[in-house]
Description:
The chain is α/β, with parallel strands linked by helices. The chain has a single domain, classed as CATH 3.30.1330.40. The protein is 31% helix and 26% strand. The protein is built from three helices and seven strands, in the order H-E-E-E-E-H-E-H-E-E. The chain has helices at residues 4-10, 60-79, 106-125; strands at 28-31, 34-37, 53-54, 57-58, 87-98, 129-135, 144-152. The strands form two sheets. Strands 1-2-7-5-6 form a five-stranded mixed beta sheet, covered by helices on one side. The longest helix has 20 residues, at 60-79. The chain is globular and about 45 Å long. 38% of the residues are buried.
Amino acid sequence: MADVRAKLKELGLELPVAALPLAAYVPAVRTGNLVFTAGQLPLLDGKIPFTGKVDGGVTPDQAKELAQLCALNALAAIQLVAKVDDIERVVQVRGFVNGAPGFIGHPGVINGASELFIKIWGDVNGKHARTAIGVAELPLDAPVEVEVVVELKK
C-alpha cells in the first residue's frame, strides 16, 4: 500500500485541500473501484500561479510544473470520495494544454502530471493511458488542465 503523503513529502510536496467546483459538477465521482476526477486546474491557494498560453507568455517548463499541480489537485479531489492510500493504480490521465498557435509540445507539458504519478506508484501502477490535447482556451485562462481516472484496491 502506497503512503501517498509520505511519498509526496519526500518529493517536497503535500496534498492540497480540494478546490471547490467552479460550476455545476462535483470534483470526483466514485463508481465501484474506479474514481474519475473532474478537470483540475493548477490552483494554488485559490489562484493560478501563471495564466495565459503555453509558449506565449507561459514557458513549457512553467506549464509542466502547473500540470504537476493539477495532478496534486486531482489527488485532493480523489481524497473527497476515497482514501488516496487506497489507490491501486493510475488508469488514465487526460491533459489539456492552452497553447499558443503553433505550439506542439503538449506531451512534455502533461509529463508534469504523469511523472508525479510514476514517482508515487512506480512504473507498473503509476504509468497510465494518456491523452495530451491542445485547446484554444481553458477556464480562468489556465495554461493546463488535467483529469484523472484511478483504480482503488478492492
